UniProtKB/TrEMBL annotation:
<dbReference type="InterPro" id="IPR000847">
    <property type="entry name" value="LysR_HTH_N"/>
</dbReference>
<dbReference type="Pfam" id="PF00126">
    <property type="entry name" value="HTH_1"/>
</dbReference>
<feature type="domain" description="HTH lysR-type">
    <location>
        <begin position="1"/>
        <end position="58"/>
    </location>
</feature>
<keyword id="KW-0804">Transcription</keyword>
<protein>
    <submittedName>
        <fullName>LysR family transcriptional regulator</fullName>
    </submittedName>
</protein>
<dbReference type="Pfam" id="PF03466">
    <property type="entry name" value="LysR_substrate"/>
</dbReference>
<comment type="similarity">
    <text>Belongs to the LysR transcriptional regulatory family.</text>
</comment>
<dbReference type="GO" id="GO:0003677">
    <property type="term" value="F:DNA binding"/>
</dbReference>
<dbReference type="InterPro" id="IPR005119">
    <property type="entry name" value="LysR_subst-bd"/>
</dbReference>
<dbReference type="InterPro" id="IPR036388">
    <property type="entry name" value="WH-like_DNA-bd_sf"/>
</dbReference>
<keyword id="KW-0805">Transcription regulation</keyword>
<dbReference type="InterPro" id="IPR050176">
    <property type="entry name" value="LTTR"/>
</dbReference>
<keyword id="KW-0238">DNA-binding</keyword>
<dbReference type="InterPro" id="IPR036390">
    <property type="entry name" value="WH_DNA-bd_sf"/>
</dbReference>
<dbReference type="GO" id="GO:0003700">
    <property type="term" value="F:DNA-binding transcription factor activity"/>
</dbReference>
């Protein structure tokens, strides 16, 4: 069996289309189709069936998938071993993350990892939703709650905290807040209620506020609204150092604790390369959260 054919099989299985696989492989859809047909002939089994949604795995294709993924891991490990970069991570890795983590934490963490591993290419995909690892939208994903189903490995990375916050310009022109009950007289910034993709993001349920006047599905947009003096929000403590003039409100009365979790394919636990990267992410995120939260608290 040709590894290159298996590589194309994996691309079609993840993209669920010939054209999508071709874009990732940098070849045309017709070539992808011919290579899939060649593999099916060699295997003596149909691996895909075309449906209205695209190319779906047959039973035989589903049985082949984990073997192809293990072959992919073995090839990546061999490439790293023979690359001449002993002790260094190499190749490409794609990390999915919620946009708050991607904007305020991962730039610094990825810089440190890249500095220590010159042959490593890191891609960060920031989306305000849950990633689909089975389609290889990412090699690993950071989430705000652990999944309850699927062939996945889950590792807690670090706790983080959120506080009520506003810009000093807003506070100077609006009534003071001395208790949570007084929040109802203020303009609140938060998630669009019907676009909250994880229960851990439903912050306002704990404040008694029921109305979000300015909403966004993006943490970064919400934080910039606060920075513009548009109102109050529940803000990641680690984002506050990036927002001059923004300070915490009622820090002794209100503070939320949440966690980041690293989600990976179950089979990837056999990959020493990905295990080492996961550990670098864990240490880097933990230290960066602690550093930024300390700055935020000193500024209050």
């Amino acid at each position: 069996m040709d590894w290159d054919d298996l590589r194309i099989f994996l691309a079609v299985a993840r993209a669920e289309s010939l054209s999508g696989a071709g874009r990732g492989l940098k070849c045309d859809a017709a070539t992808v189709g011919r290579r899939v047909a060649r593999l099916e002939e060699a295997m003596g089994a149909q691996l895909f069936v075309k449906s209205p949604q695209g190319y779906a795995l047959t039973e035989a294709g589903a049985r082949l998938l984990p073997h192809a993924e293990r072959a992919e891991q073995a090839m990546a490990g061999a490439s790293e071993e023979l690359s001449g970069r002993a002790g260094h991570l190499t190749g490409s890795v794609r990390i999915g993350a919620p946009d708050g983590c991607a904007n305020y934490l991962l730039p610094q963490v990825c810089k440190a990892i890249a500095d220590a591993n010159p042959g490593l290419e890191i891609q960060v995909v920031a989306l305000p939703r849950v990633f689909n690892l089975s389609k290889r939208e990412a090699d690993m994903a950071i989430a705000v709650s652990p999944p309850s189903a699927g062939r996945l490995t889950v590792q807690k990375l670090t706790d983080y905290h959120l506080s009520l916050a506003a810009h000093r310009d807003y506070l100077a022109t609006h009534p003071p807040v001395t208790s949570l009950a007084e929040l109802r007289g203020h303009r609140m910034i938060g998630y669009i209620p019907d676009m909250i993709f994880d229960k851990e993001l439903d912050y306002f349920a704990e404040t008694g506020c029921e109305t979000v006047t300015l909403g966004s599905n993006s943490v970064s947009v919400q934080t910039q609204m606060v920075r513009a003096g548009a109102g109050m929000a529940i803000v990641h403590d680690f984002a506050i150092p990036f927002c001059p003039g923004v300070c915490r409100i009622l820090p002794e009365a209100f503070r939320l604790t949440r966690a980041f979790w690293l989600i990976r394919h179950a089979d990837d636990r056999r990959s020493e390369r990905l295990n080492r990267l996961a550990e670098a992410l864990r240490i880097g995120l933990r230290d960066e959260v602690n550093r930024l939260e300390t700055l935020a608290h000193e500024a209050t």
